[in-house]
Amino acid sequence: MTVQTFIPNGAKAASENTVTQPTHTTDVSIKKLYIETQGCQMNEYDSHRMADLLGDSHGYILTSNPNEADILLMNTCSIREKAQEKVFSELGRWRKLKDKNPDLVIGVGGCVASQEGDNIQKRAPYVDMIFGPQTLHRLPQMLDQHNAQVEKPKKDKIKLVDISFPDIEKFDFLPEPRVEGFKAFVSIMEGCSKYCSFCVVPYTRGEEVSRPLDDVLAEIAGLAEKGVREISLLGQNVNGYRGETFEGGICTFPELLRLVAEIPGIGRLRYTTSHPLEFSDELIQCYEDLPQMVSHLHLPVQSGSNDVLQAMKRNHTIDVYIDKIAKLRKIRPDMHLSSDFIIGFPGETDENFAETLQFIKDLDFDHSYSFVYSKRPGTPASDLPDTTPEQVKKERLAQVQKVIKQSSIEKTDAMLGKIERVLIEKVSDQDPNVLIGTADNTRLVTFVGDATWVGRFAEIEITEIKTLNFVYGELLNLEPDVA
Ligand code: SAH
Ligand code: F3S
After folding, report:
1. Is the per-residue pLDDT at 7 higher than 90?
2. What local confidence, expressed as pLDDT, does residue 169 receive?
3. What's domain 419-478's superfamily in CATH?
4. Which CATH architecture has domain 3-19+26-162?
5. pTM value?
6. Whose CA is nearest to atom 7 of ligand 2?
7. What separation in Å is there between the alpha carbon of 338 and the centre of ligand 1?
8. What b-and-e string marks burial along 254-292, b requiring 16 or more CB atoms within 10 Å of the CB?
9. Nearest ligand to residue 369 Cα
């Protein structure tokens, strides 16, 4: 388990669990909350909101140690079978903590809760609260209900389960996000209506629902006032955003980007994830017009074979993806591209896989989240015949990862002598004269500078490559603060 300190933007589907960053205290009278987060950045975002909610409503503070917590919350992921199984093994460990401390409250949220609420009650009856991704804002009330019935005999207790999809009301009840540092995630939509044949998301998070435009803009303006300089817009398919405007119209994703770019203080814009089908010309045009947009794009394609794409119900061909990237690279030749790949989809032949490998080489990806296909109950692909041995799938995956890793190394090496725009994020722990920031392509950049520059953007010439994700440089120009 790791304590998350840095999430490369554009990154998601992290396979390890993370714990939302705790605030440390030694006061034993303060109630403590431990949150384990599995899965994607949407879950990371939701976990932060849970911590804010229970902090504001009940005074809980975060701890990174489950042994000293009064509440344990697990924010689960069901995207692949392995992630789902982890839930029950971890709950088994938490049960032992509850045996020692019967007052301990255990809650399970996220996509496994949404899909397997009944099963969790049966397999883990010691879980006190079960809530879905769209009902986490009701956690404080659930906790009150739990506390109100603690003394009651078991037979009189009602089960606290709420895994409904109450539209987008969640955001109306969440407290203002707390700001740590200069980067913030802002959720602009929930759910997904694409129904790719392999994916559980539309069933666990519901269909696409966009937050109203004014809510999104007000949240970002508030963050900018508190010092945030880089915004990552979050959603399963952000380019499907259709936010209601104050006048009752609809704002599209490219229109939203233009409005966000006008907010004083916002010096850098990222988003994740988007679907190739809705990667429109209007969106590509934003890369020409808005200097805040990073030259880094995470655009999941899943496979480089048309046959496989069709079976996945992705609703586009490889050529569509290739054309869109070509247009984008015409505007931004330095565009770093990353993608998700599913290897060993049912029916993927040697030829199909060879096409995927060639596609990966041709498109020159910098990074990927690639996994062997995992059969998910209730999805159409789970009924497809799948005769490829698991070992063959693993070997294919290893080949994909090797090619992309090599390309990533080459991309870092190619930074030598180039000028990168860097958001200066902190002073080095080791040397007060050394600053650390991130480049557009998410590499960490270290250079000599003054602590007062933290929070500003700078042009840095890269002078030395240290590791795949870490380079040294020298200051060329310090931008004035964008606020
Ligand atoms: N909105 C994103 C996908 C979100 S799900 C999109 O546009 O595609 C995150 C990733 O999990 C997917 O991109 C896919 O690569 C992976 N994934 C989803 N279902 C999977 C399954 N059944 N097996 C393996 N990987 C899966
Ligand atoms: Fe899943 Fe496809 Fe949506 S991968 S999240 S159904 S775009």
Report:
1. no
2. 67
3. Nucleic acid-binding proteins (2.40.50.140)
4. 3-Layer(aba) Sandwich (3.40)
5. 0.89
6. 194
7. 14
8. bbbbbebbebebbbbbbbbbbbbbbbeeebbebbeeeeb
9. 1
